[in-house]
């Protein structure tokens, strides 16, 4: 079984780009948008987390769906004739996220007549990445390293060193959840 590193790499790059205060902060303290101010707030982390979720969902789910359409011929060939005839009422999982739903109805010739193949999307990468983005944004819960101490709590500030350390923690947690533990949420 191979690991899918694509969502982890995309999520880590977006974590750096969309960290509030590094490139921009929306909404800012005095204006709607400020660039490179190295401050953050709860509302700006929420806005950046929503933007992050939208972008990562588009990149992982929508583009992944387009790639799956091109690969549909290969995945549909994995349903052997024996498996098709042994299909019974209910849901039958096939290759992780390809699900065959249907019932066995045979004609006089003994052929399977009706079954429906659905591709279910894996939302775990988008949801876990967005939740960790909000939780690990420097300054919201903690900032490591802090300004005066190695660890500051809820100071609503950030720095390049803190973004780097939080990015490493973020990446390691994503690798643990998505690559090592294979957390999936098919909807």
TrEMBL record:
A Pfam family annotated for this UniProt entry: DUF3339
Protein name per Swiss-Prot or TrEMBL: Uncharacterized protein
Protein keywords: Membrane, Transmembrane, Transmembrane helix
Coiled-coil segments: none
KW Transmembrane helix (keyword) present: yes
Residues spanning the membrane: 7-26, 46-69, 81-103, 123-142, 163-185
Domain of life: Eukaryota
Source organism (scientific name): Populus tomentosa
Matching InterPro entries: DUF3339 (IPR021775)
């Amino acid at each position: 079984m191979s690991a899918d590193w694509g969502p982890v790499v995309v999520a880590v790059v977006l974590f750096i780009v969309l960290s509030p205060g590094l490139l921009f902060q929306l909404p800012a303290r005095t204006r709607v948008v400020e660039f490179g101010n190295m401050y953050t707030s709860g509302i700006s982390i929420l806005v950046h987390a929503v933007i992050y979720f939208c972008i990562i969902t588009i990149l992982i789910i929508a583009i992944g769906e387009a790639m799956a359409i091109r690969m549909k011929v290969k995945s549909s060939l994995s349903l052997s004739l024996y498996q098709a005839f042994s299909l019974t009422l209910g849901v039958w999982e096939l290759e992780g996220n390809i699900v065959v739903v249907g019932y066995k109805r045979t004609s006089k010739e003994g052929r399977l007549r009706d079954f429906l193949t659905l591709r279910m999307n894996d939302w775990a990468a988008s949801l876990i990445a967005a939740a960790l983005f909000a939780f690990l944004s420097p300054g919201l819960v903690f900032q490591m390293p802090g300004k005066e101490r190695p660890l500051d709590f809820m100071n609503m500030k950030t720095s390049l060193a803190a973004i780097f350390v939080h990015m490493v923690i973020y990446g390691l947690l994503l690798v643990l959840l998505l690559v090592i533990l294979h957390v999936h949420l098919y909807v």
